[in-house]
């Protein structure tokens, strides 16, 4: 399930116009929509999750997070406005913290227990910016700095703010404003020279320098292809180079000195299972330290593990029924060099420094090998120190027939002592699959101390609380500025020390050494920081001397708000109706209005049932359970068949209304000539006795009587529908 995070630049410089007639922010919004349409062509995009982050101050920069649906994402994207600073470093940190918060809850990083490539949340962060100078409230920095003091708990366990399955890509908009470029270059898009380019390369991504609309569409198609499930590794060569291979011209393919394939920072693809859609694996990558049960803390790990490969050719090892993991490497100078050697039957072993108990380089945990068809290079992950384990398992099945002797058990125990303890659980599972489940005792521990395990559990609980708090804060707007914001400085001056008006202006704007909160108001009681007085209508004074003395501070506050644009409700001072006008694009935005509404009050008496009738008598009872079919039958004397005449009082039978019975339960119609015919003078008891007598009828007579009974029942129902009750 890939996670796609769009980080949009909402600084004021995004309002500049391009040769297309739209602003940079409009181009960024359109790029997001085009990317989503291109991504929707892939059937694997059904599980994608989209998030939206801006350059606003945290926590207001997260517009769509983990719980927001697609409709909320599109609504927030449509309503973005460019009115801030270019705080790229803080925005990137907000995006990484948003992704890492869920990782602490799920424990997917598996700290201290090995790195599992098949436990991943592939994330792609797409930043769209104009590439201008970085600005901050404290100044204009020359380089991009990510704050390392994150408030997120557990961030100290990883040196970098990102993880190995999170990559950063940047679309740097360089569209001209006057005319379109004449000579548009086709082919690959070059990287940009802004500060974000280095950050993209560190995470395994890249940047694009976009100069035309056609180039933007090309970059979006390339980004869609970059959405892959995998993790980034650092491959570094150790030991001497392999023997030189010469081509037909006897020209060496490699020379002395550092080569590009010696160090590569590339992705390995983790393919999901086609049946379940989830990646499946068995063996982790070893940690860069030996776990100690007496250590109260864990050493911080790097985001991308450093995998060292030895160029000594050796034959690949594998035995029957032993599971292994196979990952394909992203095309790089390393894969190109291995494929040019044309040795599909040879492999290079891989190591992790300080993973062993005694050796600095550690023991091999897998190997790099070219495919048989020489189309790609694969990383095979095996058990730790597999050259020792595989011969032991081969002897166990072929020589000892699952009944090992003492010598074999001693060799196996020696191997277990040199293996990191977190490999015990996957090794038990593999031996169980192979048919030897009782070789490892259950008393062996994973290697982590009790304090470390308790700390990891506490981190998960704290992250769950922080995640709930972040989910609630998503979509909220920053409070609007209604008064003068004054910076805090260490010096303290009173108004009596002010020399001129320029010093006063510096004190109000916060640029000078004076701050208003340190002013001694007792020495000058008439000075105060005024709020906007809504009773005073905005006016455009041409002469400063026309402003009354009592309105000076209020007018100064309005002028500052109008000049610096510190509030969304701008004060123009030209038109009184401007305060009540909003753009047409904002007229249908009810989401912000609903967020500002207070929660409804509870009912006074929650046990009281709601009114079922809003019109007419409010005390009218609900008679849904008393509804009577309009084809009811009436049981009365023979005179009741006449319309509007009640039953005869002498007969003792009163008019009675009852529910309609099922046709199967009604008595059959008896012809007038039958002995069971009810005479006018007979009682009901006699009628019941006559009904209990058997009626001798032949087959043909029963069919004829049934048809007559059906026709008479239909006629009686038609008569009863026309009968009116009073």
Automatic annotation (TrEMBL):
Positions of the UniProt region annotated as Disordered: 637-726
Q: Give the record's GO biological process terms.
A: snRNA 3'-end processing
Q: Provide ranges: composition bias, Basic and acidic residues.
A: 708-719
Per UniProt, residues of the VWFA domain are: 3-227
Coiled coil regions in record? none
InterPro entries per record: Beta-barrel_INTS6, Integrator_subunit6, VWF_A, vWFA_dom_sf
Pfam families hit by this protein: Beta-barrel_INTS6, VWA_2
Single GO cellular component term: integrator complex
Name of the molecule in the record: Integrator complex subunit 6-like
Which organism encodes this protein? Gouania willdenowi
């Amino acid at each position: 399930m890939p996670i796609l995070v769009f980080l949009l630049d909402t600084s004021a410089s995004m309002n500049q116009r391009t040769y297309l007639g739209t602003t940079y922010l409009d181009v960024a919004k359109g790029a997001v929509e085009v990317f989503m349409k291109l991504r929707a062509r892939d059937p694997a995009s059904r599980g994608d999750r989209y998030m939206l982050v801006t350059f606003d101050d945290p926590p207001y920069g997260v517009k769509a997070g983990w719980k927001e649906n697609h409709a909320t994402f599109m609504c927030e994207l449509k309503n973005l406005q460019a009115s801030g600073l270019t705080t790229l470093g803080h925005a990137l940190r907000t995006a990484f913290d948003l992704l890492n918060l869920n990782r602490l809850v799920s424990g997917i990083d598996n700290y201290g227990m090995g790195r599992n490539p098949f436990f991943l949340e592939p994330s792609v962060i797409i930043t769209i910016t104009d590439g201008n100078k970085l600005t901050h409230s404290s100044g204009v920095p020359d380089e991009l700095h990510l704050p390392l003091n994150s408030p997120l708990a557990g961030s100290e366990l990883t040196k970098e703010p990102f993880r190995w399955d999170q990559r950063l890509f940047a679309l740097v908009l360089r569209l001209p404003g006057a005319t379109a470029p004449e000579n548009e270059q086709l082919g690959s898009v070059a990287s940009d020279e802004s500060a974000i380019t280095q950050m993209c390369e560190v995470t395994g991504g890249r940047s694009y320098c976009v100069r035309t609309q056609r180039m933007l569409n090309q970059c979006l198609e390339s980004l869609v292809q970059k959405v892959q499930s995998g993790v980034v590794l650092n491959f570094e060569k150790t030991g001497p180079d392999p023997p030189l291979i010469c081509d037909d011209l006897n020209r060496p393919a490699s020379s002395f000195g550092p080569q590009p394939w010696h160090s590569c920072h590339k992705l390995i693809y983790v393919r999901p299972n086609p049946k379940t859609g989830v990646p499946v694996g068995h063996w982790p990558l070893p940690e860069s330290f030996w776990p100690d049960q007496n250590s109260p803390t864990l050493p911080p790990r790097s985001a991308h593990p450093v995998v060292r490969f030895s160029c000594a050719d050796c034959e690949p090892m594998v035995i029957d029924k032993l599971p292994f993991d196979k990952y394909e490497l992203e095309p790089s100078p390393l894969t190109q060099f291995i494929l040019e050697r044309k040795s599909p039957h040879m492999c290079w072993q891989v190591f992790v420094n300080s993973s062993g108990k005694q050796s600095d380089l550690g023991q091999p945990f897998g190997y790099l090998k070219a495919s048989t068809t020489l189309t790609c290079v694969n990383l095979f992950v095996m058990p730790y120190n597999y050259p020792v384990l595989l011969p032991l398992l081969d002897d166990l099945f072929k020589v000892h027939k699952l009944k090992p002797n003492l010598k074999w058990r001693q060799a196996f125990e020696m191997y277990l002592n040199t293996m990191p303890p977190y490999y015990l659980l996957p090794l038990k599972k593999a031996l169980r699959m192979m048919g030897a489940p009782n070789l490892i005792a259950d008393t062996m521990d994973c290697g982590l101390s009790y304090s470390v395990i308790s700390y990891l559990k506490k981190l998960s609980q704290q992250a769950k609380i922080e995640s709930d708090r972040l989910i609630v804060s998503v979509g909220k707007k920053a409070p609007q500025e209604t008064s003068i914001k004054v910076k805090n400085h260490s010096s303290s001056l009173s108004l009596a020390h002010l020399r001129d008006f320029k010093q006063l202006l510096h004190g109000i704007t916060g640029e000078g050494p004076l701050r208003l909160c340190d002013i001694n108001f007792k020495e000058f009681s008439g000075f105060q920081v005024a709020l906007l007085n809504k009773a005073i209508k905005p006016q455009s004074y041409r002469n400063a001397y026309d402003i009354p003395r009592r309105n000076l501070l209020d007018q100064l506050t309005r002028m500052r708000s109008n000049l610096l644009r510190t509030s969304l409700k701008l004060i123009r001072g030209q038109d009184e109706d401007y305060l009540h006008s909003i753009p047409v694009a904002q007229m249908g935005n009810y989401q912000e209005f609903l967020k500002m509404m207070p929660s409804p009050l509870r009912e006074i008496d929650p046990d009281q049932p709601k009114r079922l009738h809003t019109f007419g008598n409010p005390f009218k009872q609900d008679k849904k359970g008393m509804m009577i079919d309009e084809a009811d039958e009436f049981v009365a004397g023979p005179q009741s068949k006449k319309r509007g005449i009640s039953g005869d009082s002498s007969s003792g039978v009163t008019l009675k209304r009852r529910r309609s019975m099922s046709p199967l339960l009604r008595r059959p119609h008896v012809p007038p000539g039958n002995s069971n015919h009810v005479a006018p003078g007979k009682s009901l008891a006699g009628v019941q006795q006559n009904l209990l007598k058997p009626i001798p009828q032949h087959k043909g007579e029963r069919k004829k009587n049934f048809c007559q009974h059906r026709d008479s029942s239909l006629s009686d129902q038609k008569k009863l529908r026309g009968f009116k009750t009073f």
